[in-house]
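Weekly sync, protein design subgroup
Attendees: M.S., D.O., the rotation student, P.L. (late)

Item 1: inverse folding check
M.S. brought a backbone from last month's batch and wanted to see whether the design step gives back something sensible before we order anything. D.O. pointed out we never logged the input encoding, so this time it goes straight into the notes. Structure tokens as presented (262 positions):
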């Protein structure tokens, strides 16, 4: 995987791919649930590396024939690869869990404008309305201001995002939602990076719970964090690939997986 420490784990992955290739493996699939360096998908300032493109090139060069990953920070990263990429969608895991909560006045909230398209898909699947949090950053992981576009009065809010880093955005959004009259606020994130004071931020936040996947091992437990395993989804993807079955079927909610809480 490319979890922390990303450099060490990436090198270990590359060595394993090379070992398999030198042992005459017929086909090598790299399973990378959390694709590190995914936020380095463009040159946002001069003289910087596009890290995700470089990692894609290295994986291809060392001998990987295919990559399985989940919820890339930027879906266009799939285009950086010269080999097939199966980009799994965590919605088939999260949607059944959200439905199981039986929230009476459910509303979906995008934590920022960039996440609005994906949240719109969740809202459409669940048949509920959506609001958007518009934020302005002072610098990385520091939010200067945030406003809500839409009404959350007496609503049960669920925020969807792909990565929870320090938790600053989600915690600030939760506080603002409660201030605007929300009955409850939950957050759903695929990849729990949880760096810095993330655990403290979440524990002291207005969030009822943070639901994450086990794409990244948690450093510590928390009463507010619920972990859902992606193992059933990934194992089925591996089986379908090597038995030449359908991968697209794994994106259909009628084939969704029952929440496997860890």
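Designed sequence read out in the meeting:
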């Amino acid at each position: 995987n490319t979890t922390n420490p990303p450099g060490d784990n990436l090198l270990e992955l590359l060595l394993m791919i090379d070992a398999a290739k030198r042992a005459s493996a017929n086909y090598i699939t790299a399973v990378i649930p959390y694709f590190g360096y995914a936020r380095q998908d463009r040159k946002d300032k001069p003289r910087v590396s596009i890290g995700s493109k470089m990692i894609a090139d290295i994986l291809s060069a060392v001998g990987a024939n295919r990559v399985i990953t989940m919820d890339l920070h930027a879906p266009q990263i799939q285009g950086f690869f010269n080999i097939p990429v199966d980009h799994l969608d965590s919605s088939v895991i999260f949607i059944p869990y959200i439905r199981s909560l039986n929230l009476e006045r459910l509303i979906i909230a995008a934590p920022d404008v960039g996440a609005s398209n994906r949240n719109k898909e969740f809202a459409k699947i669940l048949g509920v309305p959506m609001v958007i949090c518009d934020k302005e950053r002072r610098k990385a992981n520091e939010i200067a201001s945030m406003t809500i576009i839409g009404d959350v009065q007496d609503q049960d809010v669920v925020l969807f995002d792909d990565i929870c880093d320090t938790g600053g955005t989600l915690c600030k959004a939760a506080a603002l939602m409660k201030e605007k009259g929300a009955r409850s606020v939950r957050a759903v994130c695929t990849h729990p990076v949880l760096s810095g004071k993330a655990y403290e931020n979440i524990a002291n936040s207005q969030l009822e719970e943070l639901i994450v996947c086990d794409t990244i091992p948690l450093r510590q437990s928390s009463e507010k964090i619920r972990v859902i395993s992606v193992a059933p989804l990934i194992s089925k993807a591996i089986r379908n690939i090597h038995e030449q079955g359908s991968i697209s079927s794994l994106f259909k909610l009628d084939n969704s997986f029952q929440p496997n809480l860890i």
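Discussion: The chain has a mean pLDDT of 90. Strands lie at 29-32, 66-70, 85-88, 106-110, 130-139, 142-149, 156-164, 184-192, 209-213, 225-228.
Action: P.L. to compare against the previous round before Friday.
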